[in-house]
Amino acid sequence: MRVYIEDGRRFVRRAAERYDLIVLDAFTVRAHMPFHLATREFMQEIKERLAPGGVFLVNLVSAIDGSRSRILRSEYKTAASVFDSLYLFPRPYDFERGQAAPLPATRPRNVMLIALNGSEQWSAESIAKSARSLQAAGLVHTPTFLDDALNFYVGRLRTDDVPLLTDNYAPIDTMAF
Questions:
Q1: Active site residue 25
Q2: Taking burial as the number of CB atoms within 10 A of a residue's CB, which of 1, 56, 80, 139 is the most buried?
């Protein structure tokens, strides 16, 4: 795996290759994603750089529901305008693991938004099988990987009250998380 560390938008614009995986994990000092990496236009550029069946993974900090979920719901709405298949994997922070009650959806956490380049659909069974296979092959060294993979979000996100993020309008720095 080759890792590139630079402004994602600049890299994608000059890249000529296609990639099986593109990971976006970028935050400003205030822990917001830089707006130019959250827009429909950027996601269209990402899709053009993904190989068929490629995966775009975005790490976000957001609640799943409520007023502190606007960033996630806007990013989801924007990704859905470009990609056909989207999946959410909310992760509790390590200190929150093992609690008797599930975390409330209104509590911020890391959320992995995964978009697929193509019409393939993942099922709970295919996700579990792939996660177990990766773990058995020794390719995963994160102790919580299997739990996180098996606990993907299956609910519906409300997106009618959040903006579609574009280069001309992406107010994510005003959204609480």
A1: yes
A2: 56
Residue 109 maps to a domain: yes
- Of the residues 25, 84, 147, 167, which is catalytic? 25
- Block means of pLDDT (10 residues each) for the chain, 177 residues, are 85 94 81 86 98 95 91 96 94 70 80 92 90 92 83 85 95 78
Pairing label, strands 19-24, 50-62: parallel
φ and ψ of 46, to 5 deg = -60, -50
In the chain, the number of structural domains is 1
Q: Which residues contact 67 (CB under 8 A, 6 or more apart)?
A: 106, 176
